[in-house]
Write a structure and sequence with these properties.
Blueprint: H1 9-14, E1 22-26, H2 31-42, E2 46-51, H3 54-65, E3 71-75, H4 81-95, E4 100-103, H5 118-145, E5 159-164, H6 177-201, E6 203-210, H7 227-233, H8 248-254, E7 266-269
Parallel strand pairs: 1-2, 1-4, 2-3, 4-5, 5-6, 6-7
Helix pairs in contact: 4-5, 5-6
NADPH dihydro-nicotinamide-adenine-dinucleotide phosphate binds near residues 33, 107 and 216.
Length: about 280
């Protein structure tokens, strides 16, 4: 019989800490990616920002550094293996290791299946699902390398991975065959990766699944007098649409020791969208 492990005060006091960790964030120039990256920075992590646009990334680094956040950037397309290998190499060269990965890039171009070309559908699948696989694979390989051959590592000690998918991973929507397939694919891929990585290498990997939150693309939905907004609220028990900062709690929770027993999960953060 195993011995009951006592709860330690130090654990409780530090369980949400990411201080000193190295966090790599994809889609860092997006509404949520930037918010997640800033949250890591404010919490004392070293942050590597990545995306495809060097100008936007440089502006972000300038903004973050003005707030004393330790950060740097590397450009790359998450759907290209060579780019991702370079992102991993540059992060390790800059900060020595990768402890946390947040995947927050994404793309959609809604189109009815009857009008959509196979190429357009495939582009979405590559941007939202294949790219997630590639980034996860190469970052996980780096996390495992950092263990120097150790196996059966306590969960959480090998690394923490948070992937932004969507509530659209759970249900369909008109014009969303590429997006829903990608997000649903990412959720079940993450569950499988947890089986590959968690017990042996101590890596926790989870998805967060938001409904609509404010970004450049969704800003138009936030007019409280519009029919779109009013209709959406009929399915939102929480009574409003989300802001990117609404996901900071989950971000830090799933990146810290507080979530050591959680892996392979697709976490609801929908304001109750699923309950009514
Ligand atoms: P934004 O539209 O604000 O930013 C998207 C980010 O992804 C940018 O950093 C962009 O960087 C990158 N990106 C855009 N197109 C591609 C592409 N084809 N390939 C690779 N990277 C690309 O995104 P949000 O912050 O709104 O969304 C973040 C995540 O949350 C996404 O996965 C999205 O699907 C998901 N989501 C969003 C919701 C919302 O209401 N906004 C709701 C539910 C889920 P760059 O172009 O510089 O590479």
């Amino acid at each position: 019989m195993g011995k009951l492990v006592n709860l330690e005060k130090d654990f409780v006091n530090n369980m949400f800490s990411v201080k000193g960790k190295v966090a790599l964030v994809t889609g860092a120039t997006g509404a949520l990616g930037k918010t997640m990256a800033k949250a890591y920075g404010y919490a004392g992590a070293k942050v590597m920002l990545t995306g495809r646009n060097a100008g936007k990334l440089q502006a972000l680094v300038d903004e973050f550094k003005a707030e004393d956040i330790e950060c740097s950037f590397v450009t790359g397309d998450p759907a290209q293996v060579a780019d991702v290998e370079n992102i991993v190499a540059k992060t390790v060269e800059t900060y020595g290791e990768i402890n946390i990965l947040a995947i927050a890039h994404g793309f959609n171009k809604p189109q009815n299946i009857l009008e959509q070309s196979v190429e357009d559908w495939e582009y979405i699948i590559n941007a939202d699902c294949k790219s997630v696989y590639i980034v996860l694979k190469y970052v996980a390989q780096q996390m495992v390398k950092q263990l120097n051959g150790a196996e059966n590592v306590p969960t959480g000690q090998g690394g923490k991975i948070v992937v932004v998918t969507s509530q659209r991973s759970k249900r369909g929507m008109a014009g969303y065959t590429g997006y829903c397939a990608s997000k649903g694919g990412a959720d079940i891929m993450i569950a499988s990766m947890a089986c590959d990585l968690s017990a042996k290498y101590g890596i926790n990997i989870n998805a967060i699944c938001p409904t609509v939150f404010r970004s450049e693309l969704t800003e138009w939905m936030f007019d409280v007098n519009s029919e779109v907004y009013k209709n959406f609220l009929k399915r939102e028990p929480i009574g409003r649409l989300a802001e990117p900062y609404d996901f900071v709690g989950y971000t830090l929770f799933l990146s810290s020791d507080a979530s050591n027993f959680i892996t392979g999960a697709a976490c609801d953060c929908s304001g109750g969208y699923l309950v009514c």
